Amino acid sequence: MSFTKYIHQSFLEDPFHSLNVPIYPSSVFLFSDIEELINFVSKKEKKRFEYSRYGNPTNRNLELLITALEHTEDACLFSSGMSACTIPILAILEKGDHVVITSDMYLKTFDFYRKILKKYGIECSIVFPEIKHIINALQKNTKIVFTEFPTNPFYYVIDLETLSNVLKQKSILLIIDSTLASPVNCNPFLYGADLVIHSLTKYFSGQNDLIGGVVTGKKILVEKIREFNGYLGAILTAEVSYVLLRSIKTMPLRVNIQNQKALEIARFLEKHPKIHQVYYPLLESHPNFSLAKKYLKGGGCLLTIELKGNFESLKTFCNSLKIFKIGPSFASAESLIDPPYIMSHWDVPDEERQQMNIKETTVRISIGLEDTDDLISDLDQALSKI
Ligand code: PLP
User: Fold this and answer.
1) How far is the CA of 204 from the centre of ligand 1 (A)?
2) Is a pLDDT exceeding 80 seen at residue 283?
3) Residue having the nearest C-alpha atom to atom 13 of ligand 1
4) Which end of the chain is flanked by fewer CB atoms within 10 Å, N or C?
5) pLDDT tens, 187-237?
6) Domains of the chain, start order
7) Structural contact between residues 361 and 306, judged by C-beta atoms closer than 8 angstroms
8) Which of 44-48, 250-254, 343-347 has the lowest mean pLDDT?
9) What is the number of the ligand 1 atom nearest to the C-alpha of 200?
């Protein structure tokens, strides 16, 4: 893979030839006279900024970098991964439209589709993340298919290329939340996705110290979304953009190491007598192993286990870990565990939780950058306490 473009990040000219992209902590950009202002509003002069809710040089540089990393046409930053998952949908869809989403998904995004969109007269079908189910759910008024790649927390991998070909013929947009893949492991736009979304909070940051999001893809769509966000104003600050630019330089190093560590740990856990099942896309036992091999350069830092036993086993395991900390999120330097039955799905009715395959003994594990041997020893000693 090419590390070069992660590191050489300057896309906009800087009068002082600064090596690093400068932070522009300014809400306002000035015009020297009325002629300059008229040139700007009549779009004759495009390389200017007016007000940071519409655009900021530090942010623009980051947008251009993400466009290059994802091989897309344009990008628009957002204040969080959630605003990047929701605002584009509100910008594109209208009352009476229909969307298809997949059942294994980050719960907040899932609830936005199944609960919030209803209020705006938008219908949603939820299907198992497999191409035949998606195609069966398409209707005359379907405008968007939205899925994660891979899905969360069971890492289903959809056949992107085949799906995008089918959807193109029907003029339906394919929107992929590629947060779990990161641009290091896959570029869904190259397989026909129209828009690609990332929570920048995860791999792009890698440090658990910020929240941000991005939508990247076809220029015509990104422009429409940017204009819509001019009303909603869910923007990233220049300061956060700068921190992201800094973190992105090490993203391929981090992701590649996390790919290796997670696969090694998944293999260890799969053989462990206290574990019922391990879900990791690049394990031969995963139902989508061959699609994962085709589309993913690495399986990422996340794996999900189902412990043998009951709720007490889960409590003993989680409370016995010393290196792994209990906390949401993933892709940071620190290894984390997240028992979704408690952390994210506590208020979800039992029947729904069962449909989602979330059990009392399910644990999502985010592998950080600590030594693999230390992480395996920690998991082993916690499992031995069950
Ligand atoms: N998409 C996925 C796949 C996620 O896991 C998350 C958060 O965990 C989000 C979107 C939302 O991102 P953020 O927390 O940055 O708003």
Assistant:
1) 12
2) yes
3) 81
4) N
5) 999 999 999 999 999 999 999 999 999 999 999 999 999 999 999 999 999
6) 4-248 (3.40.640.10), 251-384 (3.90.1150.10)
7) yes
8) 44-48
9) 15
**Ligand 1 binding pocket includes 106 (Cβ within 6 Å):** yes
In this structure, the residue with its CA closest to atom 15 of ligand 1 is 81
Cβ–ligand 1 distance for 77 under 6 Å, the answer no
Bridge partners (DSSP) of residue 38 are none
- Rounded to two decimals, the pTM is 0.97
DSSP, residue by residue, 46-111: -S---BTTT--HHHHHHHHHHHHHHT-SEEEEESSHHHHHHHHHHHH--TT-EEEEESSS-HHHHH
Compute, in angstroms, the gap from residue 30 CA to the centroid of ligand 1. Answer: 36
pLDDT digits (tens, 9 = 90+) for 175-196: 999 999 999 999 999 999 999 9
> CA-CA distance, 29 to 52, in Å (whole number)?
8
The pLDDT value given to residue 3? 87
Q: How far is CA 237 from CA 60, 199, 240, in A?
A: 11, 15, 5
Is the minimum distance from the CB of 208 to ligand 1 under 6 angstroms? no
CA angle 243, 80, 215 (to 5 degrees): 90
In one letter, which amino acid is 7?
I
| Ligand 1 mutation target, pool 111, 202, 204, 338, most atoms within 8 A of CB | 202
The sign of the torsion formed by the CA atoms of 363, 215, 168, 189 equals negative
Q: With bands split at pLDDT 50, 70 and 90, how would you rate the model's confidence at 1?
A: low
- 199 CB near ligand 1 (under 6 Å): yes
pLDDT in tens, 98-140: 999 999 999 999 999 999 999 999 999 999 999 999 999 999 9
